[in-house]
């Protein structure tokens, strides 16, 4: 405790203090604390584990502000949980294989390995500047044989469980990168996500993982994730899996000019069987066998296929009519034209599109170019009340459910739901349709025809077939190549000494598989490797997996919602099934308990109003008085927007430059303060000065308080901050400060543990600092409570601004023998005194009526500490009992009653009583 009169007030005497703090040097603070902050220490009395993981980066060589944001968030949460006594796992690694590194190495004339290792070293140095602390003893690199030996073991396990297989398949081919792409890596308009090339389709032998076997488990798991995963991500995954109930409809074919052989019909899958009477055409893909058959006698179709074969684009309206045969509507026997169309995607459903121009926008747009003025047939409309006009159609397309129209024969007047049942019964009776379940998800194509990836551990033997490499011969090491050819493709296939190898089964001549694995295989299990990163025999021990998995909080961009997250969930469920991840029930088998998808950091972008060319910031000038921005060359006013940071737009910010100007902690706090985690941020460096002003205010306060603590007769014992405080241990003049301190602890604990509203953590600490430095004249707190509040403020500051908090902590305790030399990050997180008897007393609350202050009321101080505030019912009763209230509320009715959270104010709006 403090041995001073309990009513001695701190700020009443601050003017007489001779303590003048040294100016803040943020670069010096960063340098002083960097080594300590980069290597966090675990608390001695470890509690439960807490595994927090930011998605590991591809080592491009440069970290941008988006990286800084992600790693700041994860670092804040890791330090907070560590202060709560948790055994925190907060690792870092490198997603090091893949096409970008290979292409970059080709451009620079170096090996991918050299390029990657150099970039990793550079990025580790950049990370060290950000005051983030990772478990570097858990570091992994997916391009290291120590890692990919286990990726190969995982492949073999999948192969032995018949979940990895090879087959001839029509695949997406990138003609620039000369490799296969999964469907997920092709945009809806048929463009490669990497090279930007128009994707072609080719038939090649490929390796697949049978993810479709886990479709039910993947869908059911989404439902159980609840609110801990963003709804948008769960919806995206559910839509990608695309499990739907519908009908498979058989359309008989009629041909007058060619022999169709065994092709007597086409099958189309639909979830809208009620639109069958509105079908006006069918569309098939350019690689459909019937398209190839028809092209043999049709030069126009043949030319179309030569130009478009293998190209598909869901937005395209290109197509060519098949003249040699038609389809029949199975209900009416009406002839229907068949087109080869680019938007009919091979491998999706039955690869046949049922064209219904009256009820599907895409079909309508396609038909508008080919229907020869034949209008779209509308067969469903709304159920209309008398005198009501039909609506709900868009550009002549009615998409909703409704009532079948008069042109639907015996089905006219039926609702969509009833019509679907009746039409299905009719089709089943004719053997032309059946209920069916369709899956949009395809098996995961994992093979790539490029060098820089994990070699597939399979040997091809003419006698034995495909044989996995023996355990003793793993890893299959990727041979080093000093310089890759700019022609692309896979150089492994031409490396005779590497390719030729004995068969693992018979010992005869055989050839290695020369395809490498998709990098998504590497990242589908890396979070599991972190729990046991030095295990040479297994990817990880089942015992450690049981103890340390799943990941408690996983942080990354929403762009990974479908690919990486879906594959990681699949692999996790497989590993649970084969008991590599034991002790977890099937229904709870999810690798990431909570998913946090942070928004982007946007940069200020300038474009010339005449040319729309992007302008560099140094090509602008700002009027010092009006602050108006002009183009230096011609005085034009640039167009300003906020966009994703990129080199081409000259709007990128190098975190290293920002840290050099403002310090790592100010940059961290500014990133947190700009907005909620999930929101896109507009990076405005002009506003970071506000964080510096706050830091300066807190620094001066801490230094002043340290000077008071150094005066003779003051003694701080550890018990002062380790014991709970009650109303009997603090005087009345401390209640206001103690109340605000408790609110801050409660709200920041909740923000860091549940809501993750990290921007409010900053604002709450700023408010507490202002209360400490500008106390109410009526209630000057004692030095004891001022010290306690400052101590606990610094502990709450430590996770978000660790270097600055350590500097302030050291300054505060310069003359406190019991705490000198200690580290604030190694103290406990402050506790919230929840019990009402620990608060006590009353607080003054202002009442505003119709926007103007009218009077004050006294309320129980404990009420303001409740999670949902004082409560409307309680406040209504308090106000109703005030004589002053009658003056302002007589003859009026309260229309709205607003109690801002944690604010000692009530706002009422009224209206006259009629």
From TrEMBL:
GO terms for molecular function: aminoacyl-tRNA deacylase activity; ATP binding; leucine-tRNA ligase activity. Residues 239-427 form the Leucyl-tRNA synthetase editing domain. Residues 442-603 form the Aminoacyl-tRNA synthetase class Ia domain. Residues 736-830 form the Methionyl/Valyl/Leucyl/Isoleucyl-tRNA synthetase anticodon-binding domain. GO terms for cellular component: mitochondrial matrix. Gene3D superfamilies: HUPs (3.40.50.620), Isoleucyl-tRNA Synthetase, Domain 1 (1.10.730.10). Pfam families: Anticodon_1, tRNA-synt_1, tRNA-synt_1_2, tRNA-synt_1g. Coiled coil: none annotated. Its EC number is 6.1.1.4. The keyword ATP-binding applies. It is an enzyme of class 6 (ligase). Keywords: Aminoacyl-tRNA synthetase, ATP-binding, Ligase, Nucleotide-binding, Protein biosynthesis. GO terms for biological process: leucyl-tRNA aminoacylation; mitochondrial translation. Residues 55-187 form the Methionyl/Leucyl tRNA synthetase domain. SUPFAM superfamilies: Anticodon-binding domain of a subclass of class I aminoacyl-tRNA synthetases (SSF47323), Nucleotidylyl transferase (SSF52374), ValRS/IleRS/LeuRS editing domain (SSF50677). It is found in: Mitochondrion matrix. It catalyses: tRNA(Leu) + L-leucine + ATP = L-leucyl-tRNA(Leu) + AMP + diphosphate. Its main location: mitochondrion. HAMAP family: Leu_tRNA_synth_B (MF_00049_B). Belongs to the class-I aminoacyl-tRNA synthetase family. This is leucine--tRNA ligase. It comes from Tuber borchii (White truffle).
